[in-house]
Amino acid sequence: MSSELVPLHDVLSYAALTDQSLRVRAVEAAANYDTESLVLITLAYMTTSSRKGARTSRKTLDAYSLAVRDFVPWARTNGMQLLRPGKRDGGRYLAHLQTRPTSGKGKRGLLSAATVAQYTAGVRALYRALRWAAATEVQPFDDVYVPADPTPGIVKNPPYMREIDAVLGHCEPRLAALILLCSHAGLRVSEALAVTMGDIQGHSLVVRGKGGKVRRVPLGGRVRQALGALSPVDSDRRYFDWDYGQATYRAGKAFRAAGCEWRGFHAARKHSGTRLYQATKDFTRVGLFLGHSSVDTTRRYVAVQDNDVSSEVEDW
Question: What dotted CATH number matches 162-299?
Answer without folding.
Answer: 1.10.443.10
